[in-house]
Amino acid sequence: MVDTYLNFQAGSEPVVVPARTAGGWSRGSLLVGGAAAVGIWVAPTRPLFVLSWAVLFAWACVRSGVGGQGKAARVPVLPLLAGLLTTGLALWGSQARPLAALGAAVAGGLLPFHLWWEELRRRLTRQEYLLLLLCQPGVVWLHRFVEANPTALQGPLGNGIQVLFVTSAILQAGLGLVRKEPTRALAAISLSQSSLLMAGAFAGHVGWEAARTLLIATVSGSFVLLTIAGLLRDTYGIDRLAPDNGLADVAPDLHRLFIIMGWLFVGLPGGLAFFAEDLLFHALLEHSTAATVGFLFAAGLNAVVFYRVYVGLFSGPTRPELRSMGSTAGRRRWLVALMTAITALVLLGGVAPALFM
């Protein structure tokens, strides 16, 4: 089986480009990347965290340079340099720690370095890109850094990074408005939410608590929404938003999960994200009026982007050919069960947020 992606260029027809052949190497790659991602989240010591970070970025660079053609075969330089800068400086003294944090911010997609995330999306397989998107290595690194060094990025440097993160969130939300592919639009929301939560991490103790909680909600929501988009593509061949997709009738299970998790993901009252964003708003308000206004604008745009994706997938009349393409495969059933459990946890977080703080 061969994973492919569509390469759209202005004034040309879509071209299907082979990305990677599935098999033992692909499964082994996901295991390596997954192990590194787990290490980034739970490593108890700095050396183990640095090792996990280095392995993950080496994995991303190698995988993005394997199996491509022409430019796609080149290893992306920016994430490699950002990873090396971050891991190297993290082993030095306190004077180098702000530079290490800047390296992690670059790796996490800080404006204008969000562009390399798009390059990785084109070069990695869908499963590999989903793993990297859910892992949020730069964001997790900055979280751990701010928690361990709460005063290291105070002053002009911290304020500048905060404003850049809010600007990055607005930019990603704007990109989501023009994306035609569901996965790209949803990925833009995820990166926008990640930028917002990192802006809060620089807003004192309350901002840190809100950012950590919003990170949990962001990862949970991204996993459910992107998994549903992947199932719709595999089952019904849907890879473009259109007014006649109308999948609400033919995929009611995915429709229910998508609309519930989607609105919770962008901050609808009742979910974990709503609680986190409320805390984040008050934390930002005490530090920067400009960042607060940008936060509200980006959050509103993210809701608009989600609604646009929802309408393009599930609303409207259903094309006749889609009605005969349903699937009852076991893989879909257990994925729906898993996504239902995750959605229930996000709802539980809205009722009892202390469980996640």
Q: What would you note in describing this structure?
A:
With 357 residues, the protein is mainly α. It has two domains: 19-153, no CATH class; 154-357, no CATH class. The chain has helices at residues 24-42, 46-64, 77-90, 97-107, 115-123, 126-135, 137-148, 156-178, 182-201, 204-236, 252-265, 272-285, 289-314, 330-351; strands spanning 2-7, 15-21. A hairpin with a 7-residue loop joins strand 1 (2-7) and strand 2 (15-21).
Number of strands: 2
Biggest sheet statistics? 2 strands, antiparallel
Task: Specify the number of helices.
Answer: 14
Strand content: under 5%
Strand order of the largest sheet: 1-2
Tally of separate domains: 2
From the helix content, strand content and strand pairing, which structural class follows?
mainly alpha
Question: What's the helix-strand series?
Answer: EEHHHHHHHHHHHHHH
Q: What percent of residues adopt helix (DSSP H or I)?
A: 55-70%
Coarse shape = globular
| Terminal Cα span | 42 Å
Poorly predicted regions: 1-25, 67-73
Average per-residue pLDDT, rounded, comes to 76
Cα-atom radius of gyration = 20 Å
Key traits:
globular; 357 residues; two-stranded antiparallel sheet; 2 domains; mainly alpha
Task: Provide a concise account of the structure shown.
The protein is mostly helical and 357 residues long. The protein contains 14 helices and two strands.
Q: Topology of this structure?
A:
Elements: E1 2-7, E2 15-21, H1 24-42, H2 46-64, H3 77-90, H4 97-107, H5 115-123, H6 126-135, H7 137-148, H8 156-178, H9 182-201, H10 204-236, H11 252-265, H12 272-285, H13 289-314, H14 330-351
Helix pairs in contact: 1-2, 1-6, 2-3, 3-4, 4-7, 6-10, 7-9, 8-9, 8-13, 9-10, 9-13, 10-11, 10-12, 10-14, 11-13, 11-14, 12-13, 12-14
